[in-house]
Design goal:
seven-stranded parallel β-sheet, 1 helix
C-alpha cells in the first residue's frame, strides 16, 4: 500500500490535488492522513478500500489509523490535562486503556508505602517525551516510600518511557525500593530506574511469586539494597533483560547489580561498575534458578 502523509500545501490538496484531465483514480489500500490543509482535492474516484483521515494516530497500534478503525478497544487518558495524577487516571481507566503522561515530575501517592498501585487492570502507562523528561517518584522528600507496586498483571501491561526514582522500601524486610512486582508479567520499555533504596532486597526492583518480567532498553543506576542493589529475582520468578544497562548500584551483602534466586536472562546488556560491600557477586550473584547470558 501507499502512504501519503504529513504534506503541506498553501491552498489545497495537501495529500493529492487532481487538476484537469480525467482526474485521479485511487486504487486499493492507500492511506492519506495528516496532510494540510486537506487530504485530497479536485476530481478523483476511488476503487476498493482506502483510508483517509485528518490524523495518523493509531492508538491500538494495529496498523489502522483511528479514523478508519471500527474497533478501537481503549481510550487514552492524559495526565495532567484530563487527570491531575497518574493514580486518578488509573482509577478511571478500563482494561486496555493508555495513560499518557506529559513531561515533568509525577508524584505518586504514599498508599501505605506502596506508591502507585497497579493491580486491578492491564493498561499501557506511557510518557509523551521519554524517560529523560518524565519522572515517577514518591511523594514528599526523597525516598519517602516505594514508587510502583504491580500485582496480578498480565503481559498486556506495558510501562514505557519513565524515570522511576527516589523510592524507599523500609523496614526489616523492605522489598523493591523503586518497583515491587508480584505475580506479574508486565513489560518495561525504555525506563530508567534510579536512586532507589530497599532495606532488604531489590533496591531498584524486586520480582516475586509467579512473575515473568521483561525489561527492554532499561537502565538501573545508583540503586542500593542489602541484596540485589539494582535487581532481585525471587525464587519462582523470571526476568528477561534485553539491551539494558545495570551500573553504579550497590549492595551491603550479595549482588551489587543483580541477585537472583529465580530464572534470569540477559541479552545484549551491560552490567558495569557495581559494588558488593560485604560479601560477593558485585555484578551478578546467582543463588538458584537458571541464569542465561547472551551477547552481553
Amino acid at each position: 500500500s501507499n502512504i501519503i502523509r504529513n504534506n503541506v500545501a498553501s491552498l489545497s490538496g495537501g495529500g493529492l490535488a487532481a487538476t484537469g484531465g480525467g482526474g485521479a483514480v485511487i486504487a486499493y489500500d492507500n492511506l492519506f492522513c495528516q496532510n494540510s490543509p486537506d487530504q485530497l482535492s479536485g476530481s478523483w474516484s476511488e476503487l476498493g478500500t482506502n483510508c483517509i483521515g485528518d490524523s495518523c494516530e493509531d492508538e491500538d497500534l494495529d496498523g489502522i489509523i483511528d479514523a478508519c478503525d471500527d474497533d478501537i478497544p481503549f481510550s487514552t487518558r492524559r495526565v495532567p490535562s484530563e487527570y491531575a495524577t497518574v493514580a486518578e487516571a488509573y482509577a478511571a481507566a478500563v482494561e486496555g486503556d493508555v495513560i499518557l503522561c506529559a513531561s515533568g515530575t509525577h508524584q505518586v501517592p504514599d498508599n501505605g508505602g506502596q506508591g502507585l498501585l497497579l493491580d486491578s487492570k492491564n493498561v499501557t502507562l506511557r510518557s509523551e517525551q521519554g524517560a529523560g523528561f518524565t519522572f515517577l517518584q514518591a511523594a514528599g522528600p526523597s525516598q519517602a516510600g516505594r514508587v510502583l507496586t504491580c500485582a496480578n498483571l498480565s503481559t498486556e501491561t506495558v510501562i514505557e518511557g519513565f524515570t522511576i526514582r527516589d523510592g524507599y522500601a523500609s523496614g526489616s524486610f523492605g522489598l523493591g525500593g523503586g518497583i515491587l512486582a508480584t505475580d506479574t508479567d508486565a513489560r518495561f520499555v525504555e525506563c530508567r530506574i534510579k536512586n532507589n533504596l530497599a532495606s532488604y532486597a531489590g533496591g531498584g526492583m524486586l520480582v516475586q511469586g509467579d512473575s515473568n518480567i521483561v525489561l527492554q532498553q532499561c537502565e538501573f543506576v545508583t540503586n542500593s539494597s542489602g541484596a540485589g542493589g539494582a535487581l532481585t529475582v525471587a525464587g519462582g520468578s523470571a526476568m528477561l533483560l534485553q539491551d539494558c544497562f545495570v551500573g553504579s548500584n550497590s549492595a551491603n551483602a550479595y549482588g551489587g547489580g543483580i541477585f537472583t534466586l529465580g530464572d534470569l536472562t540477559l541479552e545484549d546488556s551491560s552490567v558495569n561498575n557495581n559494588l558488593s560491600v560485604g560479601k560477593r557477586g558485585a555484578g551478578i550473584l546467582t543463588w538458584g534458578g537458571v541464569t542465561t547470558i547472551r551477547n552481553s
